[in-house]
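Subject: for your reference before the review

Hello V.,

The reviewers asked for a structural picture of the protein, and I figured it would be easier to keep everything in one thread rather than splitting it across files. Below is the amino acid sequence we used in the manuscript, unchanged from the supplementary table.
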Amino acid sequence: LGLVGSEMCIRDRGDVKLKVIERTPEGTRVVEFPSEENAEGVLQRHGEVPLPPYIKRPLEDPERYQTVFARSPGSTAASTAALHFTKELLDRLQQKGVKVVWFTLHMGLGSFRPIKTEEVEDHRLPPEIYILPPETASEVNRAKAEGRRVIACGTGAVRVLEGVVGEDGMLRAGSGMVDIFILPGYKFRVVDGMITNFHLPRSSHLVLV
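And here is what came back from the structure prediction:
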């Protein structure tokens, strides 16, 4: 990528030109794609998988950074906690009586953005898109009612479950945006435990852990 005035030009890759129309206070860019170009198609041809800083080498096969849970495109990052799992391991867990349920979280740039505020409480997480199916909400509510543990896979999953629970302690199916920032001292209402992975210094994920 090369910046040319107000235009960001992808050179030597079909000469696609993207116009930067806004620079946000958070340091991101709002980009306008050429009207005749399909944005997703451009990203598929020229984009690269956004990797956390502790993965140093480019991926020869982008599928290596996909989890067994991945279904629909839209996330800027994989849930690295879910990289622990294989289909075989999930089968073994289910054979032991573990109930596995699913929902969608499109992780945003906040997954990479470090905390820069002097006070951690002043940090703001950009909202992320979630889709919580009825069967998942029902199963989690049933588990809580029966005194079974709810184990979330990843800090992102924790934020969705804790961010959408109602005042009555019940999860309700639906979709929308979640922007909860979980700090030390938070009283968890849904999640009893979680599986997690490495977290960067000054990250909101590390604060949650």
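For the response letter, the relevant points are probably these. The mean pLDDT is 85. The CA atoms of residues 150 and 191 lie 5 Å apart.

Happy to draft the paragraph if you're swamped.

O.
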